[in-house]
Design brief:
The model has no long low-confidence stretch (mean pLDDT 96). This protein has three helices and no strands. The protein is an all-alpha fold.
């Protein structure tokens, strides 16, 4: 999984979280990464071209909306 370091999620949530060392922050990082991995694995498991197109569309829209909320 490659995260876009220019995305507001990376800048305002993921990168600062990576700097924290408490047990709770490490646990949260693990859970957040599992969520990202599950999403990526689901997208990679699709075999139908139509499903892939829909998945890509949803991922891009979700990313755009998340970026808008974080700005």
């Amino acid at each position: 999984v490659i995260l876009n370091s220019d995305h507001p999620f990376f800048e305002s949530i993921y990168s600062p979280l990576m700097q924290l060392e408490s047990y709770e922050s490490k646990l949260f990082k693990r859970h957040l990464e599992l969520l990202l991995f599950a999403s990526a694995r689901t997208e990679l498991s699709l075999t139908d071209r139509g499903e892939k197109d829909i998945s890509e569309y949803i991922r891009e829209k979700w990313s755009d909306i998340l970026a808008a909320y974080l700005r």
